[in-house]
Amino acid sequence: MKHLSLPTGIQQWLASVFRDSPLNVQIECAGHPLLSIEGTTQTPSSLLLQIHHPGVLRTLLLNRDPLVLSEAYLQGYFDFQGRVEDMILLGRYLGSRVKQSQQALTAWLQALTLPRLPSKQQIGNWLQQWGNHTLERDRESIQQHYDVGNDFYKLWLDPLLVYSCAHFPTPDASLAAAQEHKLDLTCRKLKLQPNDTLLDIGCGWGALLRWAVKHYGVKGYGITLSQEQVNFNQECIEAEGLGDRLQVELRDYRNLPKRPTFDKIVSVGMIEHVGLENYPIYFQSALNALKPGGLFLNHGINSSEKWDQSSVGERFINRYIFPNGELARLSATLTAAEEAGWEIVDVDAWRIHYAKTLRHWANNLAQQAEQASQLIGERKLQIWQLYLLGSAMAFEDNQMGVNQTLLRKRADTQWNLPLTREWLV
Questions:
Q1: pTM for the model
Q2: Domains 8-111 and 135-424 share a fold
């Protein structure tokens, strides 16, 4: 096959970028072989990168950002052949290489001679601003993620639609069993009693609330920013006859009652949407709404390192999956809780459990790929698979963790909990 003729500087830049690739990489441009790299590992996997228009190289060079390939993929200008996990590994590798590679200046100038992409939507202009977690922006971010449609999530979540880390009592437990175990463990940690009032901040599709109402006899109140989730919860409440004990509404945590109203409060997988600048408001809002003697269980993902909003992985998730999401180190979360007036009762690390959960989700989605593609499109489906597997790998590599933190008001000087930890496991 005839090789594509590209300016020498661009070819040298590509060779520099991929020089120490851990994978065997073949690159084609417009159907012509462009570059062949042997991986540095002992038994490297292989990837074929197919660039369908030279404008992708132009944009990649001018932006020097691997996310150009993600956007090009969505617009049909880029494909890859090989394992999704290997593409994720290559993306991690390219994150620093694209910016630090040699021959960049010459290649950048020569890139200007390449044709532009014939696209109405500009590729490469997507670096969103973090922070500014206003009520309106948070509502838009949540709806963009969760309002993709309940039918899509039903394809790969467990039957209860629990979209957060499961807890596996045994290594071979099913996803459904692990999610039920997680719901019950969470309820036990909160020491729920009949007729307790339980607030769930960011209640999702309501699995935890319905479990608590049915198994512990509480009165549940859930808030979410997703209209799709409100509608789903209302259908479940009516179908299961829970209208006198469970209520879910569209509400932001900043609009919670400012007086003690609830016996127990729980928040699972919601703090990732709050934003670091709003941690004081988040923890203060829960503190104000909790009755004396109550408990607050906060379940959230933490970054193992200082959060880097400019990293390839963070920007990928921010653009395509969780707009405006932010992760903090566990220490920052605990400090914010203490400064708001909370006493830390217990911290429970679930990192390995989330890696297993994400693997289950990714496998389920792969098995339902045909139906999922009909709902959201083949290329968006691939983005979701990259997200789920990439997140699983991040937990496995200890780049992220997830923790359940049990809190009580520091002002509650009278201890009302057991002296030993048996009730927490």
A1: 0.88
A2: no
Distances (CA, A) of 217 to 179, 198, 230, 249: 20, 10, 22, 20
The topology under which CATH files domain 8-111 is Nonspecific Lipid-transfer Protein; Chain A (3.30.1050)
Domains of the chain, by residue range, sit at 8-111, 135-424
Tokens matching residue 171: 């290594």
Cβ neighbours of residue 7 closer than 8 Å, sequence gap 6 or more: 107, 110, 113
pLDDT in tens, 289-300: 999 999 999 999
In tens, the pLDDT along 200-221 reads 999 999 999 999 999 999 999 9
Strand order in the sheet with 262-268: 246-250, 219-224, 197-201, 262-268, 290-303, 400-409, 342-349
Type of residue numbered 401: G
Domain 135-424 has CATH 3.40.50.150: yes
| pLDDT, tens digit (0-9, with 9 covering 90-100), for 309-341 | 667 777 777 777 777 788 999 999 999 999 999
Phi and psi at residue 245, to the nearest 5°: -130, 0
C-alpha span between 370 and 37 (Å, rounded)? 33
CB 22 within 8 Å of CB 56 = no
What percent of the chain clears pLDDT 70, i.e. is strictly above it? 89
